[in-house]
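Protocol step 4 of 6: record predicted structures for both targets in the notebook before any analysis. Target 1:
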Amino acid sequence: MLETIKWRNGKVVMIDQRRLPNRETYITCTSHKCVASAIKNMVIRGAPAIGIAAAMGIALGAQGIKTSDTEVFLRKLDRICSEMAQTRPTAVNLFWAIDHMKALVSTNRNYSVDRLKRILISEAQKMLYQDIEVNKRMGVNGMVFIKDGNTILTYCNAGALATGGCGTALGVIRAAHESGKRLRVLAAETRPFLQGARLTAWELKKDGIPVTLVTDNMVGYFMKRGDINLVMVGADRIAANGDMANKIGTYSVATLAKVHKIPFYVAAPISTLDLSLKSGSHIPIEERDPQEVTHICGKRVAPKGVTALNPAFDVTPNRYITAIITEMGVATRPFSKSLRALVTSRKTV
């Protein structure tokens, strides 16, 4: 299984997703600042993977705090957490992981600093292993929506590279493939960062799952021809009413799917839910460097002096979503009730 990120010998090691598919290289971080930079600069991306990276970055930063005074340790750890929170604003898993690590330390504040450091390392590793299991359960819950012979459209990358395991949307596709179902994937290239072209196509090819690359503006054409049976995507944040933020362009795909009466599925862990937000209008949208639009792989494709806009995400309204697949089950309309029920069921397990 592809290892997106791991804790090894007191360091955080992650595959550099900016170099794929041409080079499979890894970055080794020895400080929390290195991890924060890796998140911000897209060395690692995908909501679940960002959460794991944040937890490991906090655990790594804690090891460098030189004090035996618990209160001093907590203050310095809080500053590390604040730095991690400044990396990317949209993926809620980042903030979930940070809050989880802070709460863990607060609960165990009576322990020595050395023990707190060990607890943080253990918890960060545990979050990675749990994410792998979550992905597997999500795959089982979602593969029933894929029929033998289906062609599935994916957008962006919601695979092993975006998680700790086999992926969210791609985890569902992998589960269906492993069950023996014949299927084909159309991977939209996903401008401007090309996650579909560079990452999704690379993952599926490695797994021997039939994949064909299409440009983003071909989606409507293939839907109109009847070539797509369903859409399967991941999510970076899901509001209480089922509105969800995903990579920019997802809203366009969802709108086209609605017009052509094609099921549109979202696969995401419970940790991606943000029930504190009533609707998607409250989800913060990250604005990235315009150079990602004016350049491709470092080469300028737009005239010099031309400016660009680069929102990294958009929000798809719940009315365009057929179902939301999680590790705890599948949510359907009304999402405000079904999502809350899944969160409640998780707490009782």
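Target 2:
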Amino acid sequence: METRTLGSTGIEVGVIGLGAWQLGNSTMWHGPDEAESLRIVDEALDLGVTLFDTAPGYGEGRSEELLGKALRGRRDRVVIVSKFGHTADGRSDFSPGAMEPSVRDSLRRLQTDYLDVLLLHSPAKELMDGSAPQYAELERLREAGLVRAWGVSLDWNADLQRVLGTTRSQVVEVLFNAFHQDPLPGIERAGAQGVGVIGKVPLDSGWLSGRYGRGSSFDGVRGRWSADDIARRADLVERFERLLPAGTSTPHAALRYVLAQWGVTAAIPGARSLAQLRDNVAAAGGALPAEAVRAIRRLWEERVGDDPVPW
């Protein structure tokens, strides 16, 4: 698999990582059971995946626990990203004093003594400013060797610009896909500043996986979409697919579009099965033609830009 460096950190990662929010998370995400989760991580390693993204709140800590179990004895082969702010018991606590205990709990679950990247996990806007005391604590943990690099996980360009302009973040995790391109100016700025960018939700919560269309219905966390939301997204999927080169699948095009953006280091699609994992990784084997990249950008500008689709 192609590898890229996370900004100026010196940390090398494969361009397709594994978003591990679904591991052990059967209630909200209908994720795989423990045995299948372990097989997914094992297969990911065999396929060249080196970047694994998790958080204490994913599956009430089970995501971190399963990654720790699966990666035991192979820690030197992987890059682990975890987060701070939302706890394994369902609370939110961004107080600086809670950061080190949270990190140590993550390390225990992950069976490691350091995190490669620690991110503030979708904090309130006031915590995306470098004057917030959380950033001094992040730097203290880096100096103590508990984390190698730090930053913020966020969704919108305005927030990304604030983080880039006021903090010393080395890595950001940004919601970015063909239907959510608002952060692109900030992503390009991050690249220019030497900040690594990890693209999260690259398949738009499954809409760009090729599985959903006009007749789809949802429960669980995806039940948040109204009938109008479903109709609009289905129309966008159809328009997106008409722009693709012959023989290119919807998920491959979606992942390749994310990776085509200057400044993006890697994308982290989730996988609930071995088949999904293998298909995601296969997207790293090609690139979209420049004209397709431009057409997908225009689709967003004309159909979404001023009227974002609800996540």
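Step 5 preliminary note on target 2. The longest helix spans residues 227-242. Residues 3-207+251-287 form a domain with the TIM Barrel fold (CATH 3.20.20.100).
Proceed to step 6 after PI sign-off.
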